[in-house]
Amino acid sequence: MATDFTLDPTLSSDTHAIGELDLCSLVLMNDARFLWAILVPRIAGVSELYELSRGDRSLLMEEIVQVSEAVEAQSGCKKINVATFGNQVRQLHVHVMARHEDDEAWPSPVWGVGTAQAYELDKAQSLITSLARALSIQPRLNVV
Amino acid sequence: MATDFTLDPTLSSDTHAIGELDLCSLVLMNDARFLWAILVPRIAGVSELYELSRGDRSLLMEEIVQVSEAVEAQSGCKKINVATFGNQVRQLHVHVMARHEDDEAWPSPVWGVGTAQAYELDKAQSLITSLARALSIQPRLNVV
Fold first, then answer.
1. Buried residues in A15-25 as b, exposed as e (16+ CB within 10 A)
2. Which parts of chain A sit beneath pLDDT 50?
């Protein structure tokens, strides 16, 4: 399944790795304004949900839910936002983010609002550890 | 399942009904700038994906894919965008929209860009008929 898969370079440069779910690589958006995870199915050449098999789509939905619950537990957020666009980065990827009534973009979607604020490295490492533990996966503590 | 379900009044006022899928009511956003459908699971009191049963989540994913394919076939779009926010309208609803490289918001997400342009009624009726046919559902031709 993962033979030809490599994470898109834009996704890679904008995020820190969290770990590997059964279907998806899970990464943390490097924007401390929002707790924002991105799931990337490890299947090469896929841009649209309908290009996944039905089984993989169902698995993706379950991983979205698992990440949503982990993100909500970590943040105590008011609402989870889930989205897949791919207009610029074509590799299929799904945003899962915690939203709070006092966040910078509330109640709008976050895209186009303000400027990303990179994490302090110890904060990123702490979040990666916590999210990986909540998801029962091995954390990727390679934040540099 | 649908005992207490009624479509949120904001969703109702912003859209035209297309028809009923097995899980979701399907409506057409009344914004002629984008071919934009919204799926609303007919289950009362649900705001987050994780509040649906696993079976209903899987069915929702399949209905998202069916609507994506219908919207793409209708529009010849470059990319499908899928999102669920619910920061303002709490009733769980999933946006599925066709994106083109020459649309008003490309390549950004559409939220916060410009102003909705209501459909001419014959255009809305034509789209509802076409999408319902593509989805093998009965069209709701109640555009007034």
1. bbbbbbbebbb
2. 2
ipTM above 0.90, yes or no: yes
Contact residues of B toward A, CB < 8 A: 47-50, 54, 57-58, 60-62, 64-65, 68-69, 78-88, 99, 106-109, 111-112
Per-residue pLDDT of B24-83, as tens digits, reads 999 999 999 999 999 999 999 999 999 999 999 999 999 999 999 999 999 999 999 999
Helix (H) or strand (E) holding A19: strand A15-20
CB of B96 within 8 A of CB of B38? yes
- Residues of B with CB below 8 A from A106's CB? 87
Q: Which of A13, A60, A54 is closest to A39 using CA atoms?
A: A60
Cross-chain residue pair A61–B58, CB shorter than 8 Å: yes
The partner residue sitting opposite B65, judged by closest CB among A49, A85, A99, is: A49
Q: Residue A24: enclosing H or E segment and its boundaries?
A: strand A24-29
- Asked if residues A99 and B87 have their Cβ atoms less than 8 Å apart, the reply is yes
